[in-house]
Amino acid sequence: MFKRVFVTMLSSFILLTTIGFKQVGAQSLTDQQANNKIRAQVQKIGVGVNARVHVKLRDKTQLKGYIADANQDSFTVIERQSGSSKSVAYADATSVKKAGSGISTKTLIILGAVAVGTVVTWVALKPVLCDGGAGTRGPC
């Protein structure tokens, strides 16, 4: 009885060990290459109030603001909400993206208005184009 329980526990432990732990693979970029990539992104975005960024750090925190200063080893982000400045080393950042690079709300509103206008126009013109016997004219 003891052997059966022991073997069951041992096989369960081995099975959970192989499934439960993630394999750690080699990173595609070395730390130096990753730092150079982040530095290039910061230099491309620039410095100043118009250089708004969204920074993700290695400790899973995020900063939103603008780049006030960029040095060889770090850059300074002025946070948008609090106005506080934080110096971020290139090694601590995982990604730096320019803020507002997606589709804006204004663009979505314009696209929605165009779609609604198209539907209303189609509903208004369909009876004129498809007047019973005129099935050969237009998309009826």
> What's the N-to-C terminus distance?
79 Å
Beta percentage is 15-25%
Number of strands: 5
- Sequence stretches where pLDDT stays below 50 over 5 or more residues: none
| Backbone CA Rg | 29 Å
SSE sequence, one letter per element: HHEEEEEH
Separate helix tally: 3
The level-1 CATH class of one domain: Mainly Beta
Q: What can you tell me about this protein's structure?
A:
The chain is α+β, with helices and mostly antiparallel strands and 140 residues long. Among the domains are: 31-98, SH3 type barrels; 103-131. The chain is 42% helix and 23% strand. The protein is built from three helices and five strands, in the order H-H-E-E-E-E-E-H. It has helices at residues 2-20, 31-45, 105-129; strands spanning 52-57, 62-70, 74-79, 85-89, 93-98. The chain has a five-stranded antiparallel beta sheet with strand order 4-3-2-1-5, covered by helices on one side. A hairpin with a 5-residue loop joins strand 3 and strand 4 (85-89). It is flat and about 85 Å long. The protein starts with a helix and ends in an 11-residue tail after the last helix. 9% of the residues are buried.
List keywords for this structure.
SH3 type barrels; alpha+beta; five-stranded antiparallel β-sheet; 140 residues; 5 strands; 3 helices; single chain
Helices and strands, with pairings:
Elements: H1 2-20, H2 31-45, E1 52-57, E2 62-70, E3 74-79, E4 85-89, E5 93-98, H3 105-129
Antiparallel strand pairs: 1-2, 1-5, 2-3, 3-4
